[in-house]
Structures are given as structure tokens and as C-alpha cells.
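so my prof wants the structure for this chain in the C-alpha cells format not the other one, which i didnt know existed until like an hour ago. anyway here's the sequence
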Amino acid sequence: MLELGTKFLISYFIGSLMGALIMGRLRGGVDIRGMGSGNAGGTNALRTQGFMFALGVVIIDIAKGYIGAAVVPGLELPFVAYDPAISRTWLTICCAAAAVLGHVWPVYHRFQGGKGAATFIGTLIAIAPTLIVPLLGVWAVVVTLSGFVGLATMSAATALPIWLAVTRLPDDQPLFIYTAVIAGFIIYWHRGNIARMRAGNENRNQKMMLFSSKRGSSSNESS
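here's what i got, hopefully its the right format
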């Protein structure tokens, strides 16, 4: 259990390195948590700081998810012995989840982070890269039809465990459990978006819609 606990914490600490705040320091101390929606994710970064800033944020947030899931489980650590009782699959899943949780509740930044989407994608690149294309496909379809980035993110995350349940169970049970749990968390982290959609005051990203009246702008934050 020492190996599992130690590597879980390492992945969590890596996940807590916020792309938005790293880019903000490189930009001279910009903190987008005090701008726009206040979310430390790629969408708010794009809306408040522009494309290149947002691109840097997304790359960092995806990379830390990948590192947490692909690199940390295989580390040889001093004073932490290899534990043969721990499944390598479950160790990887736990480290992946820790990176996502670190992004949402970063210990370095008063537990004020993003909503986990980009870091979740980074973990999937490491543990199930074949799921990336359908994940982005569902996201693109929903956002182009609705204009709601948050709804697209929730829909894409929810589609993954449903697809795995139909096509891969019982063989890929750990992956199914991981995607189902993270999908539930992503919906919870988007509860503000859900409330605004129910109230009818959630703005749409008209530029991303296939059929658009060109009114309004996006306030959905999903990274």
C-alpha cells in the first residue's frame, strides 16, 4: 500500500500544477481566476487571454494527466519497494484519477482549479488512446449542435463508460469504472452550467455552432 499511496500523491501533486497559472506567471503574473468566469481552464483562458495562452494551458493540463498515468506508476522510488500485491492496472487507474483530482482541487492554489476535462484526456492518451477520437467526436457533435461547451464535455465524458459497458465489459472493468467515476465527477463539476441551462441563461458559443443566429458568447468552462 505504500507504493500505491506514494504514487497517488505524486500524481496528485503533478495534477495540482495548473496550466493556467503557469502560463499566467510566464505572462507576468496574470491570474485568470479573477477574470471572466473565474475558472482556471482552457476555455476561460481563451476568452480572456487569447489563443496562444489557451493553447499553452491545454498542453500543460493534458501533459500532466499523461505523466500521472503513464510515467508515475512505473517510477522506481527510493525507500518505496515494488508491491507485488498491487495490480499494475489499478495502480495506473489510481494515479490517473489522482492527476485529475489534483487539477480540480490543486493543493498549491487553495484548491481552486479547473473542471478536469483536459487532464482527463491526458490520462486517456496514456491508458486508452483509442477512446480519444470517439470522445472528441461526441464533443464536437454536441457543441456544434447546441453551442454549449459544458454540455458537450459532459456528454462526451458520459458516452465513454456507456460505450465501454456495451463493447468491452467484463474484460475492461477497471477502465469502465474509471471513466464512469470521472464522468460522474465531471457532471458534478459542471453543476453551475447545468443550473444555468435549466434557468435558460447559459450563453452559447455561437462561433462553434453549425446552425447559429450569431448571438451571445460562451461562458462554459470545461478544462
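also thought this was worth mentioning. Residues 2-208 form one domain.
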